[in-house]
Amino acid sequence: MTTQLLNGIAVEVSGEGTPLLCIHGLGGSSNTWTSVLPAFDGFKVIRFDLPGSGRSALGNTALSIELYVQTAEQVLEALGVDKVHVVAHSMGTIVAAHFAARHPQRVSSLALFGPLLAPPDAGRPGIQARADLARSGGVEALQEIADAIVKGATAQQTKDGQPAVVALVRECIMRQPAEGYSQSCEALSKAQPAAVEKITAPVLLVTGDQDGVAPVAAVKAFTERLSNGRMVTLDACGHWTTFEKPVQCMVELKQFYSSIA
């Protein structure tokens, strides 16, 4: 495994084979995928931290879904990669959908965890309020936000029986740079749906039965707009799918890649 900085973007590359690009969500990093890496055996796995998240620089341009898509394009260009499989989580699924709709010929497949077309309009003010809190409150606010996310975005079984997962989710949020997290929230609050009907690749959509961010009904509606989509619902799982149910996520990923080989 190698880590490199490409124009301020932290990128990890591991394995050999067909390129696979991983895009994390709000409050995540390349480590969103660490728990499911064995499912990517036979792929050249490219994991990067979005601008302003994890180890990647924030830069001078305000964060947006468009900037995230451009960053994915730039990472692939820097690595000399054309066609890829794409895996994404949460806000990253919005980025992945825009990328795939823009470049359908470059995407071999999409595996989307906690998938979103865009935030519901009713939820946008709350996301903006979170951005404002992170910006004004700094480190202390990120702890408050992390605790709220653990409470609202993980399954009850996770909170009751997986303390290491609870700690991991908290750490992911609390280690984010405050301004980067604030701008990431603003990017999500303004996100619009991609023209997903343009996506021609097979798509796996995985959500949890207790995922309040990507609820089952919304993911079903997303799936129905795709020409080649398949939805899976994980029992006793919230929004942090790869942390809460890594074994089940790996099973679904392996079955998915076997089915399109």
Automatic annotation (TrEMBL):
InterPro entries: AB_hydrolase_1, AB_hydrolase_fold, AB_hydrolase_sf, Epox_hydrolase-like. GO terms for molecular function: hydrolase activity. Pfam families: Abhydrolase_1. GO terms for cellular component: membrane. Residues 19-246 form the AB hydrolase-1 domain. The keyword Hydrolase applies. Keywords: Hydrolase. Its EC number is 3.7.1.14. This is Hydrolase. It comes from Pseudomonas synxantha.
